[in-house]
Amino acid sequence: MADPSSYRPKPGEIPDSPGVYRFRDEHRRVIYVGKAKSLRQRLANYFQDLAGLHPRTRSMVTTAASVEWTVVSTEVEALQLEYSWIKEYDPRFNVKYRDDKSYPYLAVTMSEEYPRVQVMRGHKKKGVRYFGPYAHAWAIRDTVDLLLRVFPVRTCSAGVFKNAARTGRPCLLGYIGKCSAPCVDRVSAEEHRELAEEFCDFMTGRTNTYIRRLERQMGEAAEEMEYERAARLRDDIEALKKAMEKNAVVLADATDADLIAVAEDELEAAVQIFHVRGGRVRGQRGWVTDKVEEITTGALVEHALQQLYGEETGDAVPKEVLVPALPDPVEPVQEWLAGRRGSGVSLRVPQRGDKKALMETVQRNAQQALVLHKTKRASDLTTRSRALEEIADALDLDSAPLRIECYDISHLQGDDVVASMVVFEDGLARKSEYRRFQIKGFAGQDDVRSMHEVITRRFRRYLAEKEKTGEWTDGEDADNAGNGELTSTNTLTEDDGRPKKFAYPPQLVVVDGGAPQVAAAQRALDDLGIDDIAVCGLAKRLEEVWLPGDDDPVVLPRTSEGLYLLQRVRDEAHRFAITYQRAKRSKRFRSSPLDDVPGLGDTRRQALLKHFGSLKKLRSATIDQICEVPGIGRKTAETIAAALAQAAPAAPAVNTATGEIMEEEPGTMGSSGEPVRTGAPDERRGQET
Fold first, then answer.
1. Who contacts 502 (Cβ-Cβ below 8 Å, separation ≥6)?
2. DSSP state, 9?
3. Whole-number Å distance between alpha carbons of 281 and 274
4. Which of 273, 327, 614, 640 is least crowded, fewest Cβ atoms below 10 Å from its Cβ?
């Protein structure tokens, strides 16, 4: 681990101008590329006290061994150079988008003497016009089949084209009129290229021009009594209209725009793009990325714009780009996009109307893509097996942990302290065995004491159930040899033939936290005499794995499937805990009488409660005293007094932080004024334990 002060530039060396900087590690590999309006101010942020840095930024600067920079004239040049360097060096700490699947494109090879229409995947090539991407290749072929009636462009491979030219006989499409057969000189190269350009114009959204032209030609043919030609033109018009119907109108006619939406969590982000041309959705694509640096939604959008338009020019960059959040600053990005297009580009967040409604659809697609990505990654058997093996190797376990239990503590400023226990077996969640705990002691914000209590209660039940049902061990008998199933040496006690849930011991206990929480969990197991269950903790931010008694954490690679599984287990425990905590908190509150006062918003409600201290004192106040509160006039004060007079006289206590009323149950307050929880909790599925 390098000390950033060892390679910090001397004062005055860094210019106060726009530029791009690169951090390199000890092997001279570029690990991060960034841009700045002022290099001096931006780089100074990296060389402050490490404790003040975001954990991922701290990891980057301690991995680096040197920093260098290049001065440019404008922020737009900095944006362009940053994109070029990211493509060249592929830095590990930069955001890297990857397609969530391989999308097919409709491509026209305009660089060839006789342009060809075909389906293409993978990297884009120079001299090729691309349309899409499409969700399925068959959708492209259906569209092309309809359009070839009007634009009979070559679709055959180079080998078929050469063979037809050699024999002087066109392929089947040439005979049925769906190819102009340039291979046998039915049309010249110039005439065929003109057909290809018209095909491209139609695909870019200029549809009405061709339909009106064909309708005019059909009318002229009918007037001249050339009915066969008129019928053929009629069929061509129907084919074009049918091809257009495959893409529903979503925006006003002639609207060209790309809509970009982002769905993200602490670890990953998914980006979805809808390409709208001529008011119709012409294509859709998506990316996913690991968030390996501290980054905002606006910065994710900026990186997406770089990847989407970094190699595009002209009409491939639309007039309008709609995003969920604007990059900061937005002006250089807009200027860069305008330079790629050759004219102005509007980059904005839709606020109302059809565009906002379509953006919500794109956002839903992004959210579903993120969920699908996580589900696919978690459901693959080979991936799960590799993840469990990586965890076993990293934690030095004797075998893969087929059952993992994870615990998390949740509270609101020390109130309503609860805990959760989630169970993963063979890398998959077993929600039927989730448990939630209400902390009995007054642990407050002391997560360490709370963790000790939860682990103690859970495994005390395990020991009690083990005495009743017998010793539960990894199966090694003839029927279950090596498969890791749980087998009993005693009679099962449940009616359905299964053991009681707490009789199952995990091979690994994961706690949400660092060294203190891990030490508390291990101490609880030691106090109970349990020495055959491994314990580890996963600390947020840096995603470090802590083991009991170790001074340094175990750092798994960011691409490790084992780390990804531990993160999923931890995040699920956090979700389950916070859901229970919010449910408990909501039971203690009901709406305040002040909520029904017309014209009294949150700000003035808070001002009233802050001035009087409680709803009880406010109820006993006179109208003149209420008028003393800033922003409260006499008419409003009279309305408040009338509303409080109509409320029930026996007013419960008010939460002065939120303006909500707290319910109090008789006999639940101790002599110290703190709530006393009574009664034994029920340890059943879906209830607190």
1. 458, 461, 462, 464, 465, 683
2. P
3. 7
4. 614
Rounded to whole angstroms, the Cα distance separating 387 from 378 reads 10
d(CA 586, CA 336): 49
Q: What are phi and psi of 427, to 5 degrees?
A: 80, 5
What does the DSSP assignment read for 400-443? Answer: --SEEEEEEEEEETTEEEEEEEEEEETTEE-GGG-EEEE--S--
Residue bearing tokens 């989730």? 434
Half-sphere exposure of 191 (CA within 13 A, CB side): 10
Write the pLDDT tens digit of every residue in 79-95. 888 888 887 887 877 77
Give CA–CA dist 501/487, Å, rounded: 13
- Kindly give the pairing relationship between strand 117-120 and strand 105-108: antiparallel
- How big is the chain, counted in residues? 689
Tens digit of pLDDT for each residue in 3-61?
A: 788 888 887 788 888 889 999 888 788 888 888 888 888 888 888 877 777 767 777 88
Decide: 499 and 465 in contact? Cβ < 8 Å: yes
| CA angle, 656 then 658 then 660, to 5° | 85
Matching residue, tokens 């109302």 = 352
Please give the Cα distance from 250 to 52 (Å, whole number): 47
* End-to-end Cα separation, the chain, in angstroms: 44
CA torsion through residues 554, 560, 561, 566, sign: positive
